[in-house]
Amino acid sequence: MSKTIRFALIGCGLMGREFASAAARWCHLAKDIPRPEIVGACDINPEARAWFERHFSTIKYSTDNYRELIDKPDIDAVYCAVPHNLHARFYVDIINAGKHLLGEKPFGIDKAANDLIIEAVRARPEVIVRCSSEFPFFPACQELIKWIKEGRFGRIIEVRSAFRHSSDLDINKPINWKRQIEYNGEHGCMGDLGLHTQHVPFRAGWLPLNVYANLSKIVTERPDGRGGVAPCLTWDNATLICEARDTGGGLFPLIFETKRMSPGSTNEWELTVLGMGASAKFSTNDPNAFWFTENCGREQAWCRVNIGYKPMIPAITGGIFEFGFPDAILQMIAAFVCEVSGIKIPFGCVRPEETALSHRLLSAALLSYKEKRAVAIEY
Fold it and tell me: Is the pTM above the cut of 0.90?
């Protein structure tokens, strides 16, 4: 039997439960890789911890103090999902304690916080640190990534990457921490959703050289849950129009779109690559479909291929069936476990240096919107 990697979860909300549920499905994988075991849970809400205590007999430590967990010698790795204002302190402490870390985006409330995390990563090269981003692990998106690696697109014409949802269209939805600058940061929806859109382009080497940002605050106040209202100070929607360079040196538009208020979108991630040799697109609205067209000098037609259940890390499900969000979470965690274990994989989670690229982009976007001009991005 494969070795076990003992995990503690810091932040026992929605994504913490998703992580634990995926770990409980490890037998779904057909590849023999180390198995995550949930041994610790940390949250200031005892009811949130109680869910883990009920469902996981392997829990040895349940606490509201994360330092108690990271000091335990029988914990190997941590999954951390806490508000952005806590990232720098929590992530740096976890890394310094020698625990491998899979942390939620954006890896710091701002660039200064991200710099502290990157400094800790560089000081502990033996610790594997990655950022969560599950959507590229859909098999149809993996096919698109394969085409990028193979150079099938030729010279790039344009790339569009978007993350959209619509839950905030309800103006009576109570405020939460993601709408408050002191917890979420000035980047707003860009920090919350941006790395979803940047993961594949950054991994492809398509780095934005400059950015022109259009940012929107649409709902300016929400119910505070106590009979009053509270101001919403973070950005609801953002469109970042960038110029990037492909591997052949050609310049092309690279457009990032992050929207909390997008009518008709429940939780949609979309990536489109247009090239002189071929073009392709993927959307979680049609999660098993890989769309492509090959340029042959005549009229173009989009072709739809049903990829089915053919994930990067093999699973027991037959290829004729459908792939979904819980499967993407499982694949992402399996990819992280492989990286921790030194097992080579074709595509991995977001790297710390890619989170640093993201913070440079988003800082430039804020300046662009403030000064109503395109801003160059320094690397």
Answer: yes
